[in-house]
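Today's session is about reading a structure prediction critically. Students often jump straight to the picture, but the first step is always the sequence itself: look for stretches that repeat, for charged clusters, for runs of hydrophobic residues. Only then move on to the predicted structure, which in these notes is written as discrete structure tokens rather than atom positions. Here is the chain we will use throughout the hour.
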Amino acid sequence: MATASKAGTPDFATYADKATVDALIARARELRPFLMAEAPEGEKRRNPTPAVDKMLKDEGFLRMLLPKRLGGFGLSPTDLCRVQIEIAKGDPSISWVVQIVNGTSWITSLAPDGVQDAVFANGPAAVCGAYNPPGKARKVDGGWIINGAWPYTSGSRQSTWAQQGVVLEGYEGPVVPGISMCYIPFSDLTIVDTWYVTGMQGTGSDTSVAKDVFIPDAQMVLMDERAGQIDRTKRHFGAPSDLLPAIPVVRTTGIAQLLGAVEAMLEIVQAEAPKKPVLTTTIMPRTNSGAFMRDLGETAATLQTARLILFDLTAELDAVGYGAELSLEAKARGRGQCAKLIELIHQASESLMFQAGSSAFSLDKPISRYWKDVSMGLRHIQNIPTIGFEIYGRNIAGADPISPPGAY
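Below is the predicted structure for this chain, in token form.
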């Protein structure tokens, strides 16, 4: 049974307290050398190493966003970002896994009671998955038969449940708004080794396959009752995160890890500046170069500006958990601001690689891995700046939208 705070509010009706958050941030910082040491092997395996897998589960980093009523820490969007930034400084691929599992597990906590009863029957559970290209669902007595193959299933080895997008057999329309979500234990899926990519290699984002898998009715969320709708009549309801908008939270918190990774790149370049020359010139060290110092300062200012935008957005999301309204206009603005965040982070990462020089691309240099991971993460479909700017532009001009409001 939930305890009550001093104000009489049940503890599950609040975000995690400062002590809990500070401990998670401190632990993420302490683990940075460990994550950096494990990262090369994880990149080769194209999966988190067994040691990292154990750490993520033992330390609770996979249940930070899950509400306290389900055994999670119940972090706010802001505090999730603060932890994610520190994890990314150790290994961006691991922060990507942490983000995907936290985001998908939390979205599962917004689903109807039947889904929550099934997935969290034995306590907090790690959930990941994909929605596109969707699989197919066929109705049978008592449930559904699911077939499909979902690529990019980040965190597939760390999760026990998959949230997979499906369309009903016979449906031939667009993925949006025709998508439904089914919940399948990973024990009923086959993971196919397909993750051969340039960046984010350590995320285990392989293809998960369902072949004639039966799920009961309670494990299907149809498109007209999709997870994310606010339903105060549910038995499983009452945490601040139950009021948060799914897409803005996942998109915004997902950018934090990219910011953290580029901040780690900045630390590397900054540390080398007093030691290395500006090649092909007489300048030694780089700190004697006005041009180099100018570029370094601009990059640092760019990342600080990105931080200000990020935490302004997450503060707005935090407030929604305590009853503030987030209008459609605010969601469109947030989409545009996230697009600008992506541009700032991209600008900083590219500038740092110019400052670091061609040797930074050596595979044994940590900055090379950060750059590759960031370069790929920036191009996730939720991060494409052109789409974000167009959505915002259309909203402020009153033009016809190009996405349904739920995708803002």
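Discussion point for the tutorial: The beta strands are 127-140, 143-153, 161-168, 180-185, 190-192, 206-216, 220-221.
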